[in-house]
Write a structure and sequence with these properties.
The chain contains 6 helices and 18 strands. Strand 15 and strand 16 form a beta hairpin.
């Protein structure tokens, strides 16, 4: 990649109702092909949960990749939401539906007023035996445990226990999983469930708001509560709201986004 080449870059708070809430993602607009090592270096420099790299491939289609500070990932909800927001609100794309070619296949984003709807694949978690040492690592008793394609789903009995968790990150990183999603019923009528997401193996001790986790959380709570439309709150320090609409083997995630920074990446 040409060392003198500049790329537009933005930081966007995704799944955010106001600035400096939700989950911040960097969105880098590429002028052409980019080297994997270069993208990883940029993501490490940004030091956010994910940095998205967008390259236009046709009139309304974009190649999209996501990197944490330490690795490339197959699916990321909040950085996809942030990417769609940048294309509409910063670049001025007029079409109401955007298509992204990713490592998880074709994904789409649709805008409806202030809301962005993402069309993602379902990741149903299967009930499984609780791994040895997980309760001690989390510091809480586990009501139910399930295994998704890439993540572990831990169900706790109470909202307050989830909010008070302080896992041992060194021990948590030893479990063979991309992330540990922890969830519980919400004490507030405004939400169907609450969650937190820990991914120390991916360089993210705790992710503020995790769109991809709701591809697993949605089907679990949809079946448990017999509902097709749900509203979840991710109870990190920043916090964020994710709407979930279940549609068979697809899930529509709903959220808002706000640009907090724009600039030029000199790389």
């Amino acid at each position: 990649m040409n060392d003198a080449m500049n790329h537009a870059i933005y930081i966007v708070d995704a799944f955010a109702e106001q600035r400096f809430s939700g989950n911040p993602a960097a969105v880098c607009l590429l002028n052409g092909d980019a080297d994997d090592r270069w993208m990883q270096a940029v993501a490490t420099e940004m030091n956010l949960s994910e940095t998205a790299f967008l390259r236009q491939t046709s009139d309304n289609e974009w190649a999209l990749r996501w990197f944490t500070p330490t690795m490339e990932v197959d699916l990321c909800g909040h950085a996809t939401l942030a990417s769609a927001h940048v294309l509409w609100h910063e670049i001025g794309i007029q079409k109401d539906v955007l298509r992204f070619n990713t490592r998880s296949g074709w994904l789409s984003a649709e805008r409806s007023g202030e809301w962005i709807h993402l069309d993602f694949p379902v990741d149903r978690a299967v009930p499984s035996p609780i791994p040895e040492g997980l309760e001690q690592t989390l510091g809480a008793g586990i009501e139910a445990f399930c295994q998704g394609r890439q993540d572990l789903l831990v169900v706790l009995e109470r909202d307050a226990v989830l909010r008070g968790l302080a896992p041992n990150m060194q021990r948590l990183a030893k479990f063979d999983t991309r992330a540990v999603i922890v969830t519980a019923p919400s004490d507030l009528d405004a939400y169907d469930f609450v969650s937190r997401c820990f991914a120390p193996r991916a360089g993210i001790p705790e992710d503020p708001v995790t769109g991809a986790a709701h591809c697993t959380l949605g089907p679990y709570w949809g079946e448990r509560l017999a509902k097709q439309q749900l509203r979840g709150f991710q109870a990190s320090k920043r916090g964020g709201v994710v709407g979930v609409d279940l549609q068979g083997e697809r899930v529509r995630l709903r959220g808002k986004a706000i640009t907090t920074l724009q600039g030029q990446l000199r790389a």
